């Protein structure tokens, strides 16, 4: 159940009583406001509030840089200039507050981005729901042979079924014990802040996450990348669709200069020049490590 009845009732009430405002409004973002976009089996992302739009970015840039931006003829061109030259402050003028429901192990990855304001559901005060992330069979994979922090080939048949059965069984058993430890029926029970330590990392938590657009783009550049772990990448993909409607000029620039772009080291640039000059560049004479060479070949391919 992505949304609790109480959360849905709150959303319905807010949507039933719209108010006029003098603040900047993004029509694209208004369509997402309060709507819970499903992610994984029990998760979601929804916009609780936001500030600014494409115009807020250019407004701030023209105040900050003055003559340096007068040659840019329109807002989209200015935003692309700012993104292309790695200006950051104008993009910080836009902010979004999100309500996210996600597995704990995904939250631990997400919280590594320490440039946001976070308030998480407290298992010290409340009892967590019996909801766990169980991957679909197509996402149950073995350890990668070339990447120590990634997955390799998908498990098949009986092996996939065996692993999924263990995940489901352990999750339910751990929650049964959690309930038994905090039970108030004829026993004193363990404090919630202690009982929670027995829960698995695939149980769902929730938080409010407020971030400016500059740091959100940094998050998306890393987590919407094809190499990111699937379980956090699907959240990033959902956010990309929201941001695309919120600030379309900024998002298109982000796609072109960050998400769809690559960075080359000095050695990679040198090898590229040598290749363009007709030289046969190999792993042996490239001057890079095996992993760098593999990444360079991946870019070229």
TrEMBL record:
The keyword NADP applies. SUPFAM superfamilies: Thymidylate synthase-complementing protein Thy1. CDD domains: ThyX (cd20175). Binds 4 FAD per tetramer. Each FAD binding site is formed by three monomers. Its cofactor is FAD. It holds the Pfam family Thy1. InterPro entries: Thymidylate_synthase_ThyX (IPR003669), Thymidylate_synthase_ThyX_sf (IPR036098). One of its GO terms (biological process) is dTMP biosynthetic process. Its EC number is 2.1.1.148. It is an enzyme of class 2 (transferase). GO terms for molecular function: flavin adenine dinucleotide binding; NADPH binding; thymidylate synthase (FAD) activity; thymidylate synthase activity. Keywords: FAD, Flavoprotein, Methyltransferase, NADP, Nucleotide biosynthesis, Transferase. FAD binds at residues 89, 112-114, 120, 212-214, 218. It catalyses: dUMP + (6R)-5,10-methylene-5,6,7,8-tetrahydrofolate + NADPH + H(+) = dTMP + (6S)-5,6,7,8-tetrahydrofolate + NADP(+). DUMP binds at residues 109-112, 120-124, 196, 223. PROSITE patterns: THYX (PS51331). The active site is at residue 223. The keyword Zinc does not apply. Homotetramer. NCBIfam families: thyX. Catalyzes the reductive methylation of 2'-deoxyuridine-5'-monophosphate (dUMP) to 2'-deoxythymidine-5'-monophosphate (dTMP) while utilizing 5,10-methylenetetrahydrofolate (mTHF) as the methyl donor, and NADPH and FADH(2) as the reductant. Belongs to the thymidylate synthase ThyX family. This is Flavin-dependent thymidylate synthase. It comes from Pseudooceanicola lipolyticus. The gene is thyX.
């Amino acid at each position: 159940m992505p949304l609790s009845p109480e959360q849905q009732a709150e959303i319905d009430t807010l949507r039933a009583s719209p108010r006029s405002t003098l603040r900047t409004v993004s029509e694209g973002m208004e369509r997402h406001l309060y709507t819970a976009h499903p992610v994984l089996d029990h998760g979601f992302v929804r916009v609780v509030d936001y500030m600014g739009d494409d115009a807020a970015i250019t407004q701030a840039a023209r105040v900050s840089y003055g003559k340096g931006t007068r040659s840019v003829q329109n807002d989209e061109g200015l935003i692309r200039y700012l993104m292309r030259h790695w200006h950051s402050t104008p993009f910080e003028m836009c902010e979004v507050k999100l309500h996210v429901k996600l597995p704990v192990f995904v939250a631990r990855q997400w919280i590594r981005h320490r440039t946001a304001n976070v308030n998480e559901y407290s298992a010290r005060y409340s009892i967590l729901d019996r909801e766990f992330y169980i991957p679909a069979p197509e996402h149950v994979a073995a350890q990668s042979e070339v990447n120590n922090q990634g997955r390799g080939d998908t498990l098949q048949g009986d092996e996939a079924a065996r692993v999924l059965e263990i995940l489901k069984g352990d999750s339910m058993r751990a929650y049964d014990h959690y309930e038994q430890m905090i039970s108030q029926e004829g026993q004193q029970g363990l404090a919630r802040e202690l009982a929670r330590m027995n829960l698995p990392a695939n149980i769902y938590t929730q938080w409010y996450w407020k971030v400016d657009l500059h740091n959100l783009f940094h998050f998306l550049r890393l987590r919407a990348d094809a190499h990111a772990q699937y379980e956090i990448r699907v959240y990033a993909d959902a956010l990309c669709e929201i941001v695309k409607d919120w600030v379309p000029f900024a998002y298109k620039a982000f796609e072109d200069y960050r998400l769809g772009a690559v960075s080359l080291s000095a050695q990679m640039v040198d090898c590229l020049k040598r290749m363009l000059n007709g030289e046969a560049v190999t792993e042996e004479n490239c001057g890079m490590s095996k992993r760098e060479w593999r990444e360079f070949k991946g870019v070229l391919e």
